[in-house]
Structures are given as structure tokens and as C-alpha cells.
Design brief:
The protein is mostly helical. The protein is 71% helix and 0% strand.
Length: 188
């Protein structure tokens, strides 16, 4: 949408009704990033979803959308190869992926997903989610996913730390309480 006059595009993008604003927010290239940032801070989910679906979403705008958006906004961002995700943004996505399989599925499909984020995503997933991610992943990622699954399983089966015997600590606290009580009674 290059033929829309800039002022008209701004008015439509800021329209209260997300159904009116969405086509402009999603497709109009004449909207400057500053306007999109302002809209992302001020408007609700419908506007945020439309911005998240733009052909290109810069890192600053992506972080704002991640901070303000609900899971539907995060799903759109995760599926958008033109969304530039910062390290903090990727961490927020992985957190959200623990609660939302669609976000996890979209992340695993991203060609720009850093290795460390892929491993973190897999290690924080349940076994059921891990099996699904392995099935959805590109062939070049499957060995990495299997290694992360195996590392997580090895960590989980490691010998747990010895249990702490708190009897001595309880005895010390009880003794200190009784001494404190005696000291208070002698002050009366």
C-alpha cells in the first residue's frame, strides 16, 4: 500500500476499530516506525496483531509487542520471518512457548532461531512437546534436538543432592528462642 497518502494512513492506523486499522497497519509501507511504536504502546490486541504481521518488524517494535501483547500477538510474531527478535525477545518467546504449543511450533520453524535458544526451548519442554518439536523440526535441527532431549534426560536422572537434615537447625532455633524468652522475662 504505497499509494495511500501518509496522513490518511496515520488516521486509519490509529482508528479505534482494529478492523479498520488492521489492513493499514499490516500492509502500509508509508507508516514510519515512530508511528507504529506509538500505536503499539497505545492500542489493544487487534492493532498489535496487525503490526506483528507486517512484512518487516524491527527489533524495538518487536520487543514492545512482546511486552504488551497476549498469546495471539506472540503467535503472529513467532510465525513472522520478518520479525527481528532480540535476545530478550527470544527469551520471552521461549517462556511463552512453555504455555503455548503454537508458539513453540512456530519458533522451531524459524530459520533464524539461534542454537542456544533452540536447546533452551527443547530442554524446557515436556516430553510430549519434545516429541512434537522433533517431528516438526527441519532435518538439519533434529540431531540438535535429540542431543538436548538426551542432555535433559541425563540431568533429570542424575543423583539428587543429599537430603538436608534440619534437626540440628531446629534444635538451635529452639534453644535460641528459649534463651531469648528467658532474657525477656528477666527484664520484666
Amino acid at each position: 500500500m504505497r499509494l495511500v497518502p501518509r496522513e490518511l494512513a496515520r488516521r486509519l492506523a490509529n482508528h479505534d476499530d482494529a478492523d479498520v486499522a488492521a489492513p493499514i497497519l499490516r500492509k502500509c509501507e508509508c507508516l514510519p516506525d515512530a508511528d507504529l511504536t506509538d500505536i503499539a504502546w497505545m492500542r489493544a490486541e487487534g492493532h498489535l496483531c496487525a503490526i506483528a504481521g507486517r512484512k518487516a518488524v524491527n527489533a524495538e517494535l518487536t520487543d514492545i509487542l512482546l511486552l504488551r501483547g497476549d498469546s495471539s500477538v506472540l503467535r503472529v510474531l513467532a510465525r513472522n520471518p520478518g520479525a527481528d527478535l532480540t535476545s530478550a525477545g527470544l527469551a520471552m518467546m521461549v517462556d511463552a512457548a512453555e504455555r503455548d504449543d503454537d508458539i513453540a511450533d512456530a519458533l522451531i520453524s524459524r530459520s533464524d532461531l539461534p542454537h542456544r535458544v533452540l536447546v533452551d526451548l527443547v530442554m524446557r519442554s515436556t516430553p510430549r512437546q519434545q516429541a512434537r518439536l522433533l517431528k516438526l523440526a527441519r532435518p538439519d535441527l533434529q540431531d540438535t534436538i535429540r542431543a538436548a532431549i538426551n542432555a535433559g534426560a541425563a540431568r533429570a536422572s542424575a543423583i539428587p543432592p543429599a537430603t538436608i537434615d534440619d534437626a540440628e537447625a531446629r534444635a538451635t532455633v529452639t534453644t535460641q528462642r528459649s534463651h531469648a524468652g528467658s532474657a525477656l522475662r528477666s527484664c520484666e
